[in-house]
Amino acid sequence: MGRVALITGITGQDGSYLAEQLLARGYDVHGLIRRSSSFNTGRIEHLYVDPHVEGVRLKLHYGDLLDSSSLRRLIEEIRPDEVYNLAAQSHVRVSFDMPEYTADTIVVGTTALLEAIHQSGVKPRFYQAGSSEMYGAVLESTQDETTPFRPQSPYAAAKVGAHAMVRVYREAYGLFAVNGVLFNHESPRRSPTFVTRKITRGVARILAGLEPALFLGNLDAQRDWGYAPEYTDAMWRMLQQDEPDDYVVATGETHHVYEFLHEAFALAGLDHDEYVKFDAAYLRPAEVDLLCGDASKARERLGWEPTTRFHELVRLMLEADCREAGLDPDTVLRPVEASA
Fold first, then answer.
1. For the chain, does the N or the C end have fewer beta carbons within 10 angstroms?
2. How far is residue 53's CA from residue 159's CA, in Å, rounded to a whole number?
3. Which of 238, 10, 257 is nearest to 145 (CA)?
4. 148-173 average pLDDT score
5. Residues in contact with 267: Cβ distance below 8 Å, sequence separation at least 6, in sequence order
6. Number of domains within the chain
7. 184/191 Cα distance (integer angstroms)
8. Burial class (CB in 10 A: 0-12, 13-18, 19+), 251
9. pLDDT digit string (tens) for 275-332?
């Protein structure tokens, strides 16, 4: 009998890639989704099979991280070998507008899930999605598992709280519970409200004549960007170890938002100065200037290394957004050597 995994946040970028990878490894995958009057399962539609079909290995369950009793019932019912907690209000700028909701979904939700596991008597391995935003106002040029957290947003502060709660349950109750401190990871499945996808989607829609301009905020922030499917593979690797521990996942390279912007417009043969407009609404009350991860521990213990680099990432995202806008990327984008 194959292993069973439960993924909260399965309809998000990371959840959809992780579900694909686990299904390919022979897992039965259960996903927790919130009840809504409209479907929000676009990222996993290609994985979905009618539950009435015999042998279906992907099953979705309505639930909420703030409903601990339903979480416990679900865990007792499906008895997962692995639980991946990816659900959260994950937009940093929005967390300033919705601080209480952000804290509830991240800190309270994580605690409810950990307690449901503890009370159920089922002993799955547990993964908690951390974030490089927890480092905040960094004092060191690179950040690893020993770097102090100095959060600069409600989102980051909530993630620090959830990170600490995982350690509490690991040490107090012996749960196999790990924190993955993942630096920024992007893909064509990234929400258009995040700056990388906003840029590539905006460039594609400008090329297609669907939008006249692109509105952005701070272009000076520096981030360590990787490719999301490689980062979800790292999540799985963390739960295959003999002992639970916390890991940083990152490329070790940083680039300004401006560089991402310039790269995307250069691929399209456009001058970004003609199309990019500043909008102060996208500025954060407290900014994080520089994040750069040191994933040496993940490399040494998990055998994990990033393979998709910055220029490849920008291109693959832009190609996907061109296709979504009805364009052929082979005809509207410059060849690799011409845009390098």
1. N
2. 39
3. 238
4. 97
5. 203, 314, 315, 318, 333, 334, 339
6. 2
7. 13
8. buried
9. 999 999 888 888 899 999 999 999 999 999 999 999 999 999 999 999 999 999 999 9
Provide the residue type at 283 as one letter.
Answer: L
Provide the sign of the torsion angle of the four alpha carbons 41, 42, 46, 49, taken in this order.
positive
68-87 pLDDT, tens digit per residue, is 889 999 999 999 999 999 99
3-state DSSP: the chain helix, strand, coil percent, rounded to 5?
Answer: 45, 15, 40
CA torsion 92-104-11-288 (nearest 10°) is: 20
- Residues 231 and 332 placed together within one structural domain of the fold: no
Q: What residues act catalytically?
A: 131, 133, 155
157 near 95, Cβ under 8 Å? no
Q: Same structural domain for residues 206 and 235? A: no
What is the side-by-side order of every strand in the sheet holding 4-8? 58-62, 28-33, 4-8, 82-85, 125-131, 177-182, 247-249
Q: How far is CA 227 from CA 43, 104, 205, 211, 274, in A?
A: 16, 28, 22, 27, 29
Residue 149's nearest CA partner among 233, 235, 248 is 248
Statement to judge: residues 169 and 310 lie in one domain: no
Q: Is the dihedral of CA 52, 6, 68, 37 positive or negative?
A: negative
